[in-house]
Amino acid sequence: MPLPPHNLLLLPLILLPLTFASPNANAMEGSETETLFSIMSSMSSDRDWRSYAPDPCSPGSSWPGIECKPGPNGRLHVTKLIFGTPPNPTCKASATFPSQIFDLPFLQSAHFFSCFKSKKTTLFFPRSSLSSPLQQLSLRANPSLIGAIPPQIAFLKSLQVLTLSQNHLHGEIPESISSLSSLIHLDLSYNSLNGRIPPQMGKMTGLIDLDLSYNSLTGLIPPSIGEMGSLQKLDLSSNSLWGSIPQSFGKLKMLTFLALSDNRLNGFPHIGLEKLQSLQYLIIDSNPMFTPLPPELGELPRLQELRLANSGYSGAIPRSFTRLRNLTTLSLGNNHLSGEIPQGLGGLSKMYHLNLSRNMLTGVVPFSDEFLRRLGRNLDLSGNPGLCLNGTGGLEGILGVGVCGKSSSSSSSDVEQPLDGSRKGASSLGDRMSYWGFGIVGFSAMYCLCLL
Ligand SMILES: *[C@@H]1O[C@H](CO)[C@@H](O)[C@H](O)[C@H]1NC(C)=O
Ligand SMILES: *[C@@H]1O[C@H](CO)[C@@H](O)[C@H](O)[C@H]1NC(C)=O
Ligand SMILES: *[C@@H]1O[C@H](CO)[C@@H](O)[C@H](O)[C@H]1NC(C)=O
């Protein structure tokens, strides 16, 4: 069958890619190649980069840790650089932060993982950063990356992901960071950042994930954080933040993960936390709260983990908690909780970690044998002298609770003390560590899937 004439018009289009495939037609531009060689030789002595691959982007000769894509003019450009972990180029001892990366006109993504380990270096954003299209900058686990985050970080207008976790950065978070309006993921965790959380950060309404945990931040949590309407994960754990949780948090409708542990927060006021209907993880251990537990937490149907240990909570465990049908973890240890354990807790079919240890709970433990067996060592009721078991043979050593006396009115004097407390403590810690590992990894995995 003869080719219809209009199909001939397609022929040039079909041939077009072949012309690009001719040698060097799509090679990198000279100045970009020079910048790249200069960065590579300052960063890594794995090989002689120039002789190894004179045209690093051309297919077949490309080196590890680099990605190239064709630009509008058909030429190839460096779009991604990764340093620090094999198979990517490893960093030499004299490597310092290469601010030349901002001169690569098509670089979208730069990663430095466990790279700067001996020579002290600081972040630097030259004026040329203003025209950098960088969307992702990640510097993680670089012990010799010191100094402050320069206000000029605001030059990087295209940034969507900024990770500066596990370095030795100190000083205050620059207010100007709030002008990075494309940012969706900001992780400054595990540094020594101090001062207050800039209230201006509330302007970052596109942010999905904010992690400022494990720093030395002080002051109140700015109410403006409640304006970050897209936030799904907020972690401010392990700082020195004080005051109460701002009322405005009730507006964070998308929030699935909220962690505020290890601060000096002293208020769990009526902030409308029950409005956080997406919340799955609420982790607020170790704060000097000294209030009753907020019953409205029982109105968060998606909650899977509720951790409020070591925070001076008093009064009874709210009956509303028994409505949290998706709860897998309830950790209320080391508070001043009193009264009986609500019957319905034992009916939560997904529960597999329940810690009510070191409180002043009283009465008969209301759990079925099935429940006790299912939780095993993930059930900790120890350190509540007023609790007793209704004659369930064999389990009391695991639970750290004695058997109720023959008469139904058990006094604490005829309740057995936990057996071999020291050994139990050690195994509990192991359980808790492995549990935590699982929880965090599980959440991260889920979270990464969301980002993709
Ligand atoms: C409880 O978890 C299940 C399975 O993970 C999920 O399908 C369901 O939507 C959750 N319930 C609520 C109220 O979120
Ligand atoms: C404890 O056992 C007694 C007698 O077996 C029973 O009458 C009582 O209802 C039980 N209490 C609980 C809370 O299970
Ligand atoms: C329960 O919580 C207490 C205090 O917060 C802790 O010391 C203990 O290790 C926990 N037990 C388990 C089994 O995780």
Helices and strands, with pairings:
Layout: H1 5-8, H2 11-21, H3 30-43, H4 49-52, E1 66-70, E2 76-83, E3 109-113, E4 121-122, E5 136-140, E6 142-147, E7 161-163, E8 167-172, E9 185-187, E10 192-196, E11 209-211, E12 216-220, E13 233-235, E14 240-244, E15 257-259, E16 264-267, E17 281-283, E18 305-307, E19 314-315, E20 329-331, E21 336-339, E22 353-355, E23 360-364, H5 369-375, E24 379-380, E25 386-389, H6 396-399, E26 402-403, H7 421-451
Parallel strand pairs: 2-3, 3-5, 4-6, 5-7, 6-8, 7-9, 8-10, 9-11, 10-12, 11-13, 12-14, 13-15, 14-16, 15-17, 17-18, 18-20, 19-21, 20-22, 21-23, 22-24, 23-25, 25-26
Antiparallel strand pairs: 1-2
Bound molecules: 2-acetamido-2-deoxy-beta-D-glucopyranose (3 copies).
Molecular structure report:
The protein folds into 3 domains: 41-160, no CATH class; 184-289, Leucine-rich repeat, LRR (right-handed beta-alpha superhelix), CATH 3.80.10.10; 302-419, Ribonuclease Inhibitor (Leucine-rich repeat, LRR (right-handed beta-alpha superhelix)), CATH 3.80.10.10. The protein is 17% helix and 23% strand. It is built from 7 helices and 26 strands. The chain has a 14-stranded mixed beta sheet, covered by helices on one side. The protein has a 7-stranded parallel beta sheet with strand order 4-6-8-10-12-14-16, with no helix packed on it. Strands 19-21-23-25-26 form a 5-stranded parallel beta sheet. It is elongated, with a radius of gyration of 28 Å. The two termini are 47 Å apart. It binds 2-acetamido-2-deoxy-beta-D-glucopyranose (3 copies). One 2-acetamido-2-deoxy-beta-D-glucopyranose binds next to loops.
